């Protein structure tokens, strides 16, 4: 007998966000336009794998790369296909932070490109990392550390995590610096991580108040919801001036927003979210499908055949149906109104989407 059951209610923790007019430092809510990171990428080989590398028949580029590497080392290789399985072709990526100097080290991520089953225990061979302009900025090499594992027997295999991707801490050495003229900049551009006009004006006012008290004039002006321009005063370096203003406290504001993650059932509701009075009907639907096939046997000494006759039973139950009034004049009243209906996070997602369609949800609804 086979039984299948669908339940329309899933219970996962509901997260609540409250950040209205919270005090934060300027350095925590903005980034310097000249201090952007860069991304690097490279192609390399991981060697020394315990039989978990690429099968060279299915990944011919691995064999080609291996022969090319041996040729560059002055080792002649014979013609014909190799049968090694301890080598894997990988893509190496890294985030190149701003102000990195020659000889500094950065972390790199390594991901399998072929059909290798695991990179655990492998060693990345020297791999140049290039930027978007095609120039080499770093060189990576070192042992690969993975967070998963893979084991295989004759009849079964098991894996946990992602053994085909790993990380090398401090695995790349910076060979070329990104040219920066930060010490010559006279106008500093601050970009808000979360654009908001109220917060941009608050940053401008705080910097100008600091400038009046210390330099005798205003230095900042807001451009839009994301950008604030600051003019560096005379007789001070850019680094020292930025250090003096980045710790100023700012009362940040954020728009009313509800974020719904349908895959995990997570609901994040901002403090400013409001719901006009609305009636909501809710009910949990359960569908149960039961298979009880019967076997039909022919009479003795007949030419009949044994047959299986399917028999399906379907039961539908609906519990907790009811209608309630949801009036979200505040965050607490909104949550209490939904809890009184006995809804779970996934049902809350459906209810909030319906309330938004009805025009009663006064917030930005983001569905992930």
UniProtKB/TrEMBL annotation:
GO terms for molecular function: structural molecule activity. Pfam families: FlgI. It is found in: Bacterial flagellum basal body. Residues 1-22 form the signal peptide. One of its GO terms (biological process) is bacterial-type flagellum-dependent cell motility. It comes from the Bacteria. InterPro entries: Flag_FlgI (IPR001782). Keywords: Bacterial flagellum, Cell projection, Cilium, Flagellum, Periplasm, Signal. One of its GO terms (cellular component) is bacterial-type flagellum basal body, distal rod, P ring. The basal body constitutes a major portion of the flagellar organelle and consists of four rings (L,P,S, and M) mounted on a central rod. PANTHER family: FLAGELLAR P-RING PERIPLASMIC PROTEIN FLGI, FLAGELLAR P-RING PROTEIN. Belongs to the FlgI family. Assembles around the rod to form the L-ring and probably protects the motor/basal body from shearing forces during rotation. This is Flagellar P-ring protein.
